[in-house]
Write a structure and sequence with these properties.
Recoverin, domain 1, calcium, about 50% helix, EF_Hand_1_Ca_BS, about 210 residues, calcium ion binding
Length: about 210
């Protein structure tokens, strides 16, 4: 699949808007102490936040703002919903939940409530490092900006500068997503989707 330069130009413009409006792409990566705990590394690498407290960490990762971390949210901030975790075995994901709930879920309701987190973190408790990276949980655009664009590009980057493997893979992914969206849109316009008709009812298969 070839990369559409028109698409790249549009996406490059979007990245430029983020930079121009002071978004996360305008920030430079923070230096992280290699001995830092997982939560500190996650905040630095994923959010570019150096100074935070336990309450801010909880709120930032309470994605539906209901005062608890449910199991889906725990897996999400550990990066298990990201494409990079597609090969992580299910038993490893189950172990993440098991360990987190064992540490914090005092009332055994299968989730971590704000009060439970406050109690755990207030006593010096830290989020375990399961050896699965910093916990990617942005969409593909933000992940690209945080982990590649900010390191190697800036607001002066031109299309011809986007030659790194990460650039090519990123825009290839966009092409694939747009191609799939076009395919679905075309199918939606058809009164009958021939490919969905069982073979036994199709004349060309008899």
């Amino acid at each position: 699949m070839t990369l559409g330069l028109g698409r790249i130009g549009g996406l490059l413009a979007c990245v430029g808007l983020v930079v121009a409006h002071g978004g996360v792409a305008h920030q430079k990566p923070l230096a992280v102490d290699p001995d830092a705990d997982w939560g500190t590394r996650h905040m630095a690498e994923e959010h570019h936040i150096e100074n935070f407290d336990a309450g801010a960490f909880f709120t930032l990762h309470d994605f539906d703002n209901n005062g608890v971390w449910d199991q889906a949210e725990i897996l999400k901030f550990y990066g298990m919903e990201d494409e990079t975790a597609k090969d992580v075995p299910q038993d490893k994901k189950d172990n993440i939940l098991k360990e987190i709930l064992k540490l914090m879920d005092n009332n055994n309701n299968g989730q971590v409530e704000r009060e439970e987190w406050d109690r755990y973190s207030g006593s010096g408790g830290l989020l375990p490092d399961f050896g699965l990276g910093p916990g990617h949980h942005w969409d593909i655009e933000m992940e690209y900006e945080i982990h590649h664009w900010q390191k190697y590009h800036d607001e002066n980057t031109k299309e011809e500068d986007l030659i790194h493997p990460e650039d090519i893979e990123h825009f290839k992914k966009h092409d694939e997503l747009e191609d799939e969206a076009d395919r679905v849109a075309a199918l939606d316009k058809m009164s009958i989707v021939e490919q969905n008709i069982p073979d036994k009812f199709r004349k060309d298969k008899q």
